[in-house]
Amino acid sequence: MITALLSVLFTVAVAAILAVVMLSDSPDMLKQHITLQIQMPLVLTAVLVGAALSTSGATLQVVLRNPLADPGIVGITSGASLVAAILLLLTPDWANAYMHYVLPVGCFLGALASTFIIYRLARKLLGSATAVILSGIAISTLSGAIIAWLYMLSDANALRNLTFWLMGSLYQTNWPILALGAPFVVVAVGYQLYVAKHLNKLYAGDIAAKSSGVNVEQLTERALVASAVAVGAAVSMAGSIAFVGLLVPHILRRVVGHNNALLLPLSALAGACMLLLVALCSELTRAITLPVSMITATLGGPLLIWALSKGQVKG
What we know:
Layout: H1 2-22, H2 28-63, H3 76-90, H4 99-124, H5 129-152, H6 156-166, H7 175-194, H8 196-202, H9 206-211, H10 216-238, H11 244-256, H12 260-284, H13 292-309
């Protein structure tokens, strides 16, 4: 039932986004250009980013045994944000012509670097899930402090560009960027879906998982790397987007339970639907480009408070 509802929502959202231009009074050539060069990349970006963030959030919550784990809280996006701040605030004017392509690559590498540092710190702290969370908080705090110092040293235009990036946008991609980022998302999300059944065994604890034949350390490492790759590619394409990785798995877990073989694919579909609706809102308010995090936080904040008040957020 939930799969059918999400599939219908997905189809309706994609059709509505494409219809915004197709039903307008613009000349046919202009409609075709906008559809191919703006709307189709917009739809693909929303689908890929939503699926990457939601699936990775669901995976991190299982691997770290923490219902509050999401790519932002554990620090994966902090590295990407720090690299974005350095590039946007310190790059000389002559290099701005290349920024459209340098920024996604830099953010992707920043997300991977922050994950590597967090993982190494956690290993030294005996590799516990709590150590990963604490390491992520430390990296996030340090990255935030460096970004704050960079803010003080930068001009107004650079600050505006960084603020816009930090709030997320689905309009930052084109076909070349999608061609670079999409394979990483597909492979990383595909791996998480592939190991979803093994993630179920982690609920019973490490000893029980090992007794059932699961290599817990290897599964944890590979799941963390897959999450980092998916989130890094997503952030490089759309900037920092809040709440999707935290909220979508929580809501779905309440509806379909804790079977990750079902939860992870539905999280991918629901995350894609959520960002498609955000894209549709932006298309319907074409006078301004709405920052994605502003919409997701506006919708997600009250929903999370409601879930907390109902006692629905449980480990």
